[in-house]
Specification:
Uridine Diphospho-n-acetylenolpyruvylglucosamine Reductase, domain 3, single chain, 2 domains, Enolase-like, domain 1, alpha+beta, 10 helices
């Protein structure tokens, strides 16, 4: 609707998929939680299992727009819009989400990591729809942290968005997942920074090394919402904040 109002859509006829029951609902099994693409942010944040086991996703849903947006906006729509400033994709990357994509030719599952290849570019053909999002229930005991930095507390597009989760073992970072939004053409996993942190015990020296590595991974820009310099500085601060939490 934003693109339509801005006059950027050339097509004259549109079809609403909002009432398709196959695209709705949240299913919980012992191994996974599967979320229909038309599940709203409000439904995500109010779901008991998601709130307990996937707090990054629920926090992202709570940070998206205002109440009206959360009641109407959907998780699948956030993914298909393919904005690098979207709030829920960093959490989905941390949770290694998978997407079920359907067409008249059948269905396929694809990892969300790699789904976006560039700004507004996706592994989604013109005849395909995102049907469901699936996340594995394997993050018990992980420390998780989500932060969105914007101009206001609500109704603001992110200047920087961060999601991270880590599993600690004897004070060291045994495994870690870190994702950023608004600092590159796509929402992305900071793989090199993750690699540096694995096996390390949180310390000021480790934080500095991780910040230097992150600086080489991100590619922020100047735009109407923020500057490249600000985004770079905030990204490094959010990373330091996350590592500090891991030491507690």
């Amino acid at each position: 609707m934003v693109l339509l109002e801005a006059g950027k859509l050339s097509h004259k006829r549109f079809l609403s998929i909002r009432k398709l029951p196959e695209l709705r609902g949240i299913e919980v099994t012992p191994e996974h939680v599967t979320i229909g693409a038309l599940t709203t942010y409000t439904e995500v944040r109010n779901h008991e299992t998601l709130a307990r086991e996937f707090p990054l996703l629920c926090r992202a849903a709570a940070e998206t727009g205002g109440i009206a947006t959360q009641n109407r906006g959907t998780l699948g729509g956030n993914i298909a819009n393919a904005s690098p400033a979207a709030d829920s994709p960093p959490a989905l990357l941390v949770y290694d989400a998978q997407l079920e994509i359907v067409s008249t030719g059948g269905s396929r599952w694809a990892p969300y990591h790699g789904f976006c290849s560039g700004y507004k570019q996706m592994d989604l053909r013109n005849d395909e729809l995102i049907r469901r999002i699936r996340v594995s229930r394997v993050k018990s005991g992980w420390k998780q942290h989500y932060r969105k930095v914007g101009t206001r507390r609500a109704q603001a597009i992110s200047k920087v968005c961060f999601a991270g989760a880590a599993r600690m073992d004897a004070g060291a970072i045994a495994d870690v997942r870190i994702a950023f939004g608004s600092v590159a053409p796509i929402v992305f996993r900071a793989a090199l920074t993750e690699q540096l942190l694995r096996g390390e015990k949180p310390s000021p020296a480790v934080v500095r090394a991780a910040q230097q590595t992150l600086a080489c991974e991100i590619a922020p820009i100047d735009d109407m919402r923020s500057t490249e310099r600000y985004r770079r500085h905030v990204s490094q601060n959010l990373l330091a904040e996350f590592v500090e939490i891991l030491s507690l």
